[in-house]
Write a structure and sequence with these properties.
Blueprint (H helix, E strand, L loop, with lengths): L6 H24 L8 H14 L3 E5 L3 E7 L6 E7 L26 H17 L7 E7 L8 H7 L2 H5 L3 E12 L3 E3 L2 E4 L1 E10 L3 E2 L9 H19 L6 E9 L7 E2 L2 E10 L2 H21 L3 E8 L4 E3 L1 H15 L4 E3 L9 H7 L2 E9 L20 H14 L2
Helix pairs in contact: 1-3, 1-10, 2-3, 3-10, 6-7, 8-10
Length: 396
Amino acid sequence: MSNEKLLPQIQSLADKYYPKMVQFRRHLHMNPELSYMEKETSAFVSSVLKEAGIPHDINVGGYGIVAQLEGTGEGPAIMLRADMDALPIQEEGEKPYKSTVPGVMHACGHDAHTSCLLGALLILNECKKDWSGKVVGVFQPAEEQSPGGAKAMLEDGLMEKYKPSVAFGQHVHPPLPSGKVAFIPGDAMASADEIHLTVKGQGGHAAIVRDCIDPIPIAAQIIQALQTLVSRKADPFIPTVISIGKITTPGGASNVIPSTVQLTGTMRTFNEEWRGEIHESLTKMCKLIAESNGGSCMVNIKKGYPSLYNNPELTKSARQKAEILLGKDQVVEMDPRMTAEDFSYFALAMPACFFRLGTAAPGQKKITPIHTPGFDIDENALRTGSMLMAWLVASK
């Protein structure tokens, strides 16, 4: 691990560009755009890169942008990724940079991710005579909605054209204090599949149940039985979650037995082989339960993002570099999470490391989680995030 002479310069440039990063983040926060609709966000990112003289391609896999910077001398092409889309949530609070788009806000920190990557590229651009190799800055659309922008960018030739050898990404983490970062070696985040079940029976008057095939108790049996897939069929050393989050019937009244019940849920795990097995077991179980009660069940599993695996050697190296930059007390290790991320597609294509960026303000007691109307960050985290991304490139 070399190039520590660059450390003070990276830190100084992070201080220099910090006010700009705050401006970037607030502009993006005030003007959020949903997945696959990031036209103005992409145009803004492009305008910042143009002003800095950083070469980049637009409309990669949709509204994606890929920036390229070359240092001095030979070296690997390191990919840095940020996502750009927002969520369909109405923001609460009266901050001066509150979302101006009704029902849409950056409730997952993607405005911070984009601003950090812009900052990292500005830092690396100013000191490019002092580091070797190449950086590939990926501004990705549509992380929040499957099939996701990462897959689209890969299908649009990202690997073939830009040839990155490793990838780094980061995500805000509200429980972690600003200035700290966290790493998860190995299995880091789960796969995410949507479960859509339609249980069919025979409707009728609720007082004359003998003339009906009630799909409601059939659906209840299925919900209960699904949990045995986790408790009795899953390897206890492979984390697995099956949850039904929505139950609906068409129309309905207190004295009406419906003809159908629709169940919607999610399935999460870390093992791709087991993921395939559970799809088969779930389908068979649901159909047999319905048929044994005189009904039927249509099963539709929408395969979502794969599980995210952090390359252990790359993650160990990144953690060591973070400790040099920030100090050992500012770097921690986290447990795997059952949430999902389409950065996992990049991690399947090359060795990758996805780490967490602390965003809690000093002394903050109440933590507002991501994906909630009151979510916000301590903007000092922008300095940490941009500085670390730049350092992961320059310190190789």
